[in-house]
């Protein structure tokens, strides 16, 4: 009886051991398979992207096993797989080589996933509607085409802009409205002209819209940066700048920031409006994505009793054709004479034909309809980007993942070379924009990538984030392998 119990116990222990051993074997096998696929993808990307040239010899099996921290058998299997895919070939006693470029050519035509563009996708623009508006504008504004109209813009268009601004709680008269040849012209003029407060320095968020930085650099303005994070700005620092640094104006993107994608809270906007009045500092409020706002209670800074010191600027490029080059601003009365003079000297007047197209588009209801469609489309995409990023990307890379609207978000590349990452993503068909150019040269960079959803559909978003996640994982693996290797010490 005792012998039977002992034997039964031994059999049960043996059975449990076999089950655990089998489970660990399966898990280990799955990990090995995943690693093998990752190595295959890495080498394949280097070959297709041209980092490893046609005819070039690949590193030896031993060197590759050290690089990828895996067994020799794994690399042998990887090379066999790549050979089966006709990417490499073997020479007896010589090693493995990349095949001729003619064979690789079909593989090099990779579909692009565009996370870099900030201009609307042509397929999302109702070009026939614009064509009709253009033809109508030629008829209605024929006489005006042969003259130089008011540098502030066509009166009939400014009246339509007043109605549009009222919908955003920006209450301005037609005399306070200026129509510019794009927002870039407005920023350029405002940066270079004197202001009624007699101050000379300009304060900008860091990071910020690169076009503003280039305008300031071209005019050799004295510029001060203040850090903007996903949580906002440091109010004590901002107030100190307003009080002590002769700030002419503070340039801010309060709604759907470029490149972060974040927005200020109502309390932040109210506080900014109050500080601007208290310290006689103007604020240039770049509300370039107001048409995409999903929260009906999200008002601009100008709506918070800030009419005396807020220049409210709106671009039409994200909803209409960027090529029309149109933007509008509501400015304080104190600034109107100076801005009239500088606008007139810049271009005499904004294109009458472009203004006519926008006016007809707005009066016909086409603008409101198209803006509603774009809001729905972009909001769906930015939510998708947020969901997939949180699922696939490491937590430390989720810098400013937003799902409340807009078109941009920023991810961080902790411990990796931004330029190298951009290059590798480009090889794999993913275009991204490094945020380095959105910082002042004197301001610390943050290793950020700006991602745009303007020209990506939901399928592209998922595929693109998956590729970014793989490249981040590859960098982490290389860093871990390098740090875990202990140097050999002679005794």
From TrEMBL:
The keyword Lyase does not apply. Keywords: Aminotransferase, DNA-binding, Membrane, Pyridoxal phosphate, Transcription, Transcription regulation, Transferase, Transmembrane, Transmembrane helix. Its cofactor is pyridoxal 5'-phosphate. PROSITE patterns: HTH_GNTR, PROKAR_LIPOPROTEIN. The chain crosses the membrane at residues 12-30. Residues 33-101 form the HTH gntR-type domain. This is Aminotransferase class I/II-fold pyridoxal phosphate-dependent enzyme. Pfam families: Aminotran_1_2, GntR. SMART domains: HTH_GNTR. In the C-terminal section; belongs to the class-I pyridoxal-phosphate-dependent aminotransferase family. The lineage of its organism: Bacteria, Bacillati, Bacillota, Bacilli, Bacillales. It comes from Paenibacillus silvestris. It comes from the Bacteria. GO terms for molecular function: DNA binding; DNA-binding transcription factor activity; pyridoxal phosphate binding; transaminase activity.
């Amino acid at each position: 009886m005792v012998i039977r119990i002992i034997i039964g116990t031994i059999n049960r222990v043996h059975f449990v051991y076999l089950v655990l051993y089998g489970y660990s074997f399966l898990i280990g096998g799955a990990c090995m398979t995943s690693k093998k696929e990752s190595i295959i993808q890495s080498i394949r990307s280097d070959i297709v992207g041209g980092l490893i040239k046609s005819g070039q010899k690949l590193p030896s099996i031993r060197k590759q096993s050290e690089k990828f921290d895996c067994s020799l058998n794994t690399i042998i299997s990887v090379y066999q797989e790549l050979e089966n895919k006709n990417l490499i070939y073997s020479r007896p006693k010589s090693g493995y080589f990349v095949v001729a470029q003619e064979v690789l050519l079909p593989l090099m035509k990779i579909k692009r996933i565009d996370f870099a563009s900030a201009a609307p996708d042509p397929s999302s623009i109702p070009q026939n509607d614009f064509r009709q508006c253009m033809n109508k504008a030629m008829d209605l504004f024929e006489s005006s085409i042969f003259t130089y109209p008011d540098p502030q813009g066509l009166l009939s268009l400014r009246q339509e802009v007043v109605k549009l601004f009222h919908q955003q709680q920006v209450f301005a008269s037609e005399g306070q409205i200026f129509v510019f040849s794009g927002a870039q012209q407005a920023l350029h003029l405002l940066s270079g002209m004197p202001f009624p407060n007699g101050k000379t320095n300009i304060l900008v968020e860091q990071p910020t819209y690169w076009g503003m930085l280039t305008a300031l650099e071209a005019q050799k303005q004295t510029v001060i940066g203040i850090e903007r994070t996903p949580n906002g700005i440091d109010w004590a620092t901002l107030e100190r700048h307003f009080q002590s640094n002769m700030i002419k104006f503070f340039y801010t993107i309060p709604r759907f920031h470029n490149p972060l994608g974040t927005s200020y809270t109502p309390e932040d906007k109210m506080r900014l409006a109050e500080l601007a009045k208290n310290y006689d500092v103007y604020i240039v409020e770049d509300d370039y994505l107001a048409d995409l706002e999903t929260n009906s209670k999200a008002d601009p800074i100008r709506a918070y009793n800030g009419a005396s010191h807020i220049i409210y600027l709106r671009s039409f490029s994200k909803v209409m054709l960027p090529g029309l080059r149109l933007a509008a601003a509501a400015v304080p009365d104190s600034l109107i004479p100076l801005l009239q003079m500088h606008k007139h000297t810049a271009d005499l007047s904004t294109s009458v034909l472009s203004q006519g197209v926008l006016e007809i588009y707005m009066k016909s209801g086409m603008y409101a309809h198209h803006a509603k469609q774009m809001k729905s489309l972009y909001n769906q995409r930015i939510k998708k980007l947020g969901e997939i990023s949180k699922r696939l990307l490491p937590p430390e890379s989720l810098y400013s993942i937003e799902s409340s609207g807009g078109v941009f978000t920023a991810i961080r590349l902790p411990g990796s070379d931004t330029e190298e990452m951009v290059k590798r993503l480009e090889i794999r068909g993913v275009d991204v924009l490094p945020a380095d150019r959105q910082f002042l040269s004197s301001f610390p960079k943050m290793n950020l990538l700006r991602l745009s959803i303007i020209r990506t559909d939901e399928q592209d978003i998922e595929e693109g984030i998956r590729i970014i996640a793989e490249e981040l994982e590859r960098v982490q693996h290389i860093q871990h392998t390098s740090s875990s290797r202990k140097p050999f010490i002679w005794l």
